[in-house]
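Hey, quick one: can you model this chain's 3D structure?
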Amino acid sequence: MPKRILEGLVVNDVLDKTISVLVERKIKHKKYKKMMKRHKKYAVHDPNNQCKIGDKVQIIESRPISKNKHWIVLSDEENEKALSSS
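Sure thing. Here's the predicted structure for all 86 residues.
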């Protein structure tokens, strides 16, 4: 099964090697057919502490790193590989 790639905004970078990324998506309401925004925050592994608040990043699904961290920041090289393979 392919790994999911999401794009979001960094909202917290206080912890060591961990950032919080807010991913926003739009869904259509089943009854009223109106577009609604839904968002979720993910704890993401940032091994080099390179991401800062306000950065737009892409994250990829990975094995569990800790209790809440199951995502890793895509670096530029990994980002190009993932986008070219899909």
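One thing worth noting: The mean pLDDT is 90.
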